[in-house]
Design goal:
By secondary structure, the chain is mostly beta strands. The protein is built from 1 helix and 7 strands, in the order βββββββα. The chain is 9% helix and 34% strand.
Length: 82
């Protein structure tokens, strides 16, 4: 997961429709920049556009099962789809 904020601006990220090395290249609507996670780098790097070579920081995350998470974070809520 990555921050969407850079230089005080919040970006709206979406899939660009392109992939590179089996990974989606993201696009932001505000600046039309392209974003990609470069191997060995922390964060999402702007590979083309207004923020070229700048990074969106990566948030710390945990990969776990729901039952384990619920024990660790019992107040967590979720949206149930019908």
């Amino acid at each position: 997961m990555y921050s969407r904020e850079i230089d005080g601006q919040v970006l709206t990220l979406s899939a660009s429709g392109w992939t590179y090395d089996l990974t989606f290249v993201l696009y932001d609507y505000e600046t039309e920049s392209l974003w990609y996670h470069l191997e060995g780098e922390n964060g999402l790097t702007c590979i083309a556009g207004e923020f070229a070579d700048k990074k969106l920081p990566e948030f710390q995350s945990t990969l776990t099962r729901w039952r384990t998470w619920k024990v660790m974070e019992p107040d967590t809520k979720f949206l149930k789809y019908p």
